[in-house]
Amino acid sequence: ASGSFFPDGIKSGDPTPTSAAIWTRVGNYAAGSVPVVWSVAEDATMQNVVRGGVADVDASTGYNLTVKVRSLRPDRWYHYQFEVAGITSVVGRLRTAPRSNAPADHLRYAFASCQQRTQSFYVAHRAILNENVDFLMHLGDYVYVHDSATLSVEDYRGVYRRFHSNPLLQEMHAGVPLVAVWDDGEFYNGVDRTGDPGRLANARQAWFEAMPVLRPRDDR
Predict the structure, then answer these.
(1) CA nearest 121: which of 169, 63, 175?
(2) pTM of the entire structure?
C-alpha cells in the first residue's frame, strides 16, 4: 500500500544549520487536492516527533510535494515520514548542517553524476547507502531526457517518474540526504541560453518539483 501512495519514495536535502527540505510524490489519488501529513522525529520509530504539519498537494505540481522543515538543531540527524489517508511512507533520514562558524571536518560526502538506467540496477547507490555518508552531492544529469521529444512539463515529469521507480535509488534517498544541482541532462543535450524559453521553463519546473529543493519564492 505504501508503494502505491508514495511510488517515487522519499528524499531529504538542502540542509542549513536549522532547516532541511523533505520531499515525496503522492500516487493513487483522486482528482483535486490531497492533504499530506508530515512528521519529523528524533528517533527512527517516530515516537519523539519534534516537527510536523499538513500540506496540500495537487495536480499543479504533478502531486510532488516539498516541505521546508524549520527550527531544527544544527549538525544532527533526524527521521521523517509522510502519511496520506492513513497510509504511511517508509521512514527516512534528514540531516542539518553545522553552524557556519563550527568545524565541518567530521562530515563525509559522496559525489555522483550522469545517472543512467542500466542493467547494473544501481548497485553503486546501494554502496553509497552503506558507506555511512552524511550527504550525497549530486552534480547533475540526474535524469536524461529525449533531446527532441521531452518538451512539456508532463513529459519531463514522466522522465523523473521512470528514474524514481528504481527501488535501490529509493532506498538510497531515504537514508542519505541530497544536495543537488542540474546539468544538461535535465533539460536536453547541450542546453544553452538560446533554447526555447518555454521548454527551459518546463524543465526547470519539473526539476524543482522532483527534488528536495525550494525555489527562492517558496522559501518562506
Answers:
(1) 169
(2) 0.94
